[in-house]
Amino acid sequence: MNLFDLQPDEWQALLLTLKVAAVALALSLPAAILVAYLLARYRFPGHGLVNALVHLPLVLPPVVTGYVLLLMFGRKGPVGAFLNDTFGISFAFSWTGAALAAGVMAFPLIVRPIRLSFEAVDPKLEEAAKSLGARRIVSFFTVTLPLALPGILGGAILGFAKAMGEFGATITFVSNIPGETRTLALALYTATQTPSGDLAAFRLTLIAAFVAFAALIASELLARHLRARLGGADA
Amino acid sequence: MLDVDIAGRVGSLEFQARFASEGGVTSLFGQSGSGKTTLTNMIAGLLVPQTGRIVLDGTVLFDAAQGVNLPVQERRIGHVFQDARLFPHLSVRSNLTYARWAGRRKGDRDLEEVVDLLGLSALLDRKPGRLSGGEKQRVAIGRALLSDPRLLIMDEPLASLDQARRNDILPYLDRLCGDAGIPILYVSHSIEEVARLSDTLVILSDGHTPAYGPVAEMLTRTDLGRATGRHEAGALIHGRVAGTDAAWGLTLVDIGGAVLQIPDLPAETGDTVRLRIRARDVALALEPPQGLSIRNAFEATITSISQETGPYAEILCVLNEQTIRARITRASVADLDLAAGKSVTVLIKSVAIDRRQRSVGQGSVNGAERV
Lengths: 235, 371
Hints:
heterodimer; A: about 240 residues; mainly alpha; 10 helices; about 80% helix; B: about 375 residues; six-stranded mixed beta sheet; five-stranded antiparallel beta sheet; 21 strands; disordered C terminus
C-alpha cells in the first residue's frame, strides 16, 4: 500500500464527493441566479430579510445548519415527511441529503459573485433590448445573463469547491455512512480518527488538492474564453 | 401622427409638454437640462408621466385618464440613445438583427438595405468594443431602423462625438431623414443640426414647450431668442439650383424672384436646397449700395421689428414669401428710420450662407410632403 495506490473505499469517496457536489451545484445554481437577480435589480419589501436569509449559512455554525436541516428534512421533519410521502424522496442518511446540505452551505457563496455581476450589467442595455421589442424574460436571457456569465462561472466554481469540502452540516444531517454519505472530507476525518490512518489521510488530502486545482484551472480557461467573447476582442 | 400632451414631475423639474407633429423630422430643441431626454423617455415608455396622453399613428401609447400605458416593447418606437447602448457580447450583425430574433419584429426593411444606407458592410463581424464612436452610432441607428418602428427617436446621436466624427455621420443622417420614410423625433441642442435636418421644430425650455411649428417659421420667431440661442438665430429659406458659374466657382440659387450666388455649393442644377442664413450675417440698406464686395443684395419688405432693451433689434423681412432675419443695432434702426412695411435692400454676405444644407427630393420643397 503506497501513496498513489487508491483503495476502493477512497475511490468511492472521491466519486461520491463529485456526485454530491455536482448535484448540489445543479440544484442551487438556478435558484442562486434567480435570487441574485432579484436582489440586484429590485427593491421590494423584505429585501433585507431575503438577503440575510441567503447569507445565514455563511455565518451560522455549520453544525447548526445541519441540525436545522435534520429538523426540517429528516424523516419526521415537516418538509421531509411531506416529500417522502408525496414523491418518495428521502434525504435522511442518504447521499441526496449530503447534496442538499452541500447545496445549502454553498448557496451564499454562489449568490454573491452572481449578484455583483448582475449589478455590473448596465440596466440601460435592458432598456435598449425592450425598445427593440424584447420582453423582459427574453432580454434577460439574451442580454443580462450572457453579460453576467463571468460572475456566474465564478459563483459556480466557488460553490462547487464549497460543496466538495462541506463537512459540519453534512455529518450532522446525514451522518458518516461509508458509500452513502462519506465524502472526501468525511473520509479524511475518519482516517485521522483511525490508528494507522495517516497514509490514507495523506492520499485523500492529495486527491482533494488535485480536484480543487483542476477545477481552478478549468475555470480560469473558461473565464479567459468568456472574457474574449464579451470584451470586444474577436476571439 | 404624433400627438403629445403630458405633464408630470421628474426630480426637481416641473414638466409639461405639448406638441403635435405630422411626420417628417421633428426636432426637439432645447438647452442642456431643459428636459429633452425626459420627454423622449416618456414617449418611449421608459418614464411614466403623471397625467396626459400620447398618441402615435392613432395608437394610444399612454393615457392617464383611461389607465393606458403601453409597455416599451409594444410601442414600436426605435430608440437611438446618446450612448449607443450596443450589446457588447454580440457582433454588429447580431446587434442589427436583435429586434428580429429577440423582439419578434419582422418588418419589411432588408438588412442589406440598412447596411448600405449606413455604410456598415465592413463592420458586420466585429464586436462593438472594436468600433469607433461614430461607427457605434451608425450601428445603433441601423439596429433601431430594423426594429420595424413607427417612430424613430434619436436622442442627441451626435452629442458624444467630436466634430470630425459628426461630419462623418451627418451625411448618413441626411440620407436617413430623406429616405427612411419613418417619422423621426430628433433631439438636439445644436441649432445647426436642427436647421439642417428637421421639418418641424419643438422648443423645450425648463421642462415646458412654449412653441412648436414648421422649422423655417420657428427660426424666424424673434420671441424665442432665449430658447433658440441669440447668437445662432437665423432663417431658413428654400431655393432651387438654377445653374453654376464655373469661372468664378459660384452656384446660382433661385429663391423666387431673386438669385443668390453661393460659393462651392455641392449641389446639381435642378436640386432643391435649403439654406440657413444667420441673422448676424444680414445687413440692411435703404438704397442698393454701390462699390460693395457683398454680392447678394435684394429688395425686401420689413414685416416686423422686435423692440428690445439691449443694443440689438431683430428684424424680419419678406422676400417673395420667404422670410429673412436680420440682427442690427437699435441705433441703426433709428438712424435709418426703419419701420414695418418699409422697403429695404437686404445684404447677405456670400460666405455667410450655410452651405451644409440638405438636398431634398425634387418638387418637395416643403419637407413634410415626403411623408
